[in-house]
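Subject: design request, 353 residues
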C-alpha cells in the first residue's frame, strides 16, 4: 500500500528540522515507506561498517531489528544515542540463542575436552551478550557477506568452530566454501542435555552448529526451487545463505542481501530471476528493474514480521519526539558487554576483503 501522505509529510518535516542531528540507517528488508528516509541503506555488514560514518550526529535512528541497533550502539561513540523506533522489532533467530544456553554449551564442550580447540563464531544476528561471549573466548562475529573469511580466520585459530545461532549459514558456508563435509557438521540442540551430542561426536566434528534458523528464509524448500523452474522457463534462482542446505544446493547462486542486489543490478535485461530472500527487498528489486523478470521464490513465504514492525507511524513517532527533545526507545549496551562485543565485531571488521 502507498504511504500515508500525511505521515510522509510529517517524516520529511521532522527529518528536515533535525538536519545533521539525526542519521537514519535502514536495512534492505525494511518497508518502502521507511527505507525512503534512510541516509544509508545496507545489509547487516554494510550497516555495521557505516554506523560510525557520522560521529557528530547525536542520534542514530536505526530502521532494522534489535541486534542491529545494539551493534550500532557498540560501534558508535558514547555521545551518540541509537534509537529503535519499535522495541518489538526483534529477530526470532537471535532469540534462539540465549547467553545462559551458550555458556552451558561451552561447559559441555569443556567436559568433552574440546573447548580449548574450539573458536566461537556468532552470526551478527545474535544479542550483544553472545557477541561479547565470542569476544571473551577468542572468537568473532560474522555476517552473511563474510562468513567464509570469518571461518577461514577461525580455523587458523583453532580446530573446530562453534557457530551461533544460524545452523544454515554455518553449514552452507562450511560445506560450500570451506570444503568441510556434511558429516563433519553436527547440530547442538540447546534444549537437550549436552546439546544431544556425545563426546565422540563432538570430538569428530569440525563445525558445531547451533540449532537456530531464520523463520523467513527457513521456509523456502527444495520444492520451491523445482516449482519455480517448472513455472518460469530459464529462470535463475538466487537465494540467501540463511536458506536450508538442500535449497542452496539447488539454487544457481547464493549470497548476502548486498550480493543479491548487485547481481540483479548487473544482470542482462530480459533475464528471469527467482529470489529467495525477504519479500520487501524482492518486491523493491522487481519494481526497480522492470527490464528483468524478478519473482519471489515461494509465494507462501511471508515478510519478516519483526522487520515490518518498523513502520511509518513508529518512525514518525521517534523523529517527532526527537524534535520535541525526547529520546524514545534508546538502545544501550552495558560497558562490559560492549567492550567484549566490540572486540568480536572489530575482529570481523579487520577481516580481509
Ligand atoms: P544480511 O543483512 O547479512 O544479508 O542478513 C539478512 C538478515 O536476515 C538480516 O536479518
Ligand atoms: Fe531475523 Fe530472519 Fe527476520 Fe533477519 S529475516 S530479522 S534473520 S527473522
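Subject: RE: design request

Done. Sequence follows.
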Amino acid at each position: 500500500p502507498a504511504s500515508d501522505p500525511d505521515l510522509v509529510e510529517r517524516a520529511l518535516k521532522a527529518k528536515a528540522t533535525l538536519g545533521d542531528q539525526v542519521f537514519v540507517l535502514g536495512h534492505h528488508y525494511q518497508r518502502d515507506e521507511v527505507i525512503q528516509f534512510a541516509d544509508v541503506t545496507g545489509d547487516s555488514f554494510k550497516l555495521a561498517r557505516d554506523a560510525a560514518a557520522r560521529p557528530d550526529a547525536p542520534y542514530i535512528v536505526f530502521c532494522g531489528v534489535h541486534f542491529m541497533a545494539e551493534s550500532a550502539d557498540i560501534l558508535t561513540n558514547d555521545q551518540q544515542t541509537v534509537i529503535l523506533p519499535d522495541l518489538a522489532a526483534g529477530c526470532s533467530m537471535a532469540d534462539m540463542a540465549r547467553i545462559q544456553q551458550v555458556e552451558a554449551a561451552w561447559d559441555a564442550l569443556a567436559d568433552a575436552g574440546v573447548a580449548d580447540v574450539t573458536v566461537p563464531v556468532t552470526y551478527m544476528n545474535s544479542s550483544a551478550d553472545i557477541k561479547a561471549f565470542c569476544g571473551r573466548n577468542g572468537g568473532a562475529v560474522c555476517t552473511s557477506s563474510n562468513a567464509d573469511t570469518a571461518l577461514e580466520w577461525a580455523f587458523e585459530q583453532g580446530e573446530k568452530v562453534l557457530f551461533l545461532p544460524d545452523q544454515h549459514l554455518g553449514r552452507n558456508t562450511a560445506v560450500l566454501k570451506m570444503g568441510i563435509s556434511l558429516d563433519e557438521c553436527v547440530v547442538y540442540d540447546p534444549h537437550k542435555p549436552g546439546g544431544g551430542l556425545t563426546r565422540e561426536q563432538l570430538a569428530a566434528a569440525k563445525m558445531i552448529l547451533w540449532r537456530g534458523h531464520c523463520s523467513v528464509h527457513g521456509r523456502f524448500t527444495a520444492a520451491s526451487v523445482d516449482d519455480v523452474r517448472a513455472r518460469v522457463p530459464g529462470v535463475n534462482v538466487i537465494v540467501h545463505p540463511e536458506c536450508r542446505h538442500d535449497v542452496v544446493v539447488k539454487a544457481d547462486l547464493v549470497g548476502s542481501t548486498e550480493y543479491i542486489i548487485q547481481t540483479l543490478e548487473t544482470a542482462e535485461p530480459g533475464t528471469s530471476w527467482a529470489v529467495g530472500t525477504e519479500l520487501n527487498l524482492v518486491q523493491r528489486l522487481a519494481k526497480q528493474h522492470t527490464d528483468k523478470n524478478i519473482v519471489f521464490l515461494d509465494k507462501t513465504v511471508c515478510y519478516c514480521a519483526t522487520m515490518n514492525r518498523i513502520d511509518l507511524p513508529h518512525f514518525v513517532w521517534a523523529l517527532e519526539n526527537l524534535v520535541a527533545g525526547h529520546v524514545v526507545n534508546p538502545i544501550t549496551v552495558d560497558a562490559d558487554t560492549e567492550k567484549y562485543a566490540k572486540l568480536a565485531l572489530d575482529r570481523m571488521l579487520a577481516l580481509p576483503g
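Residues 96 and 252 are 29 Å apart (CA to CA).
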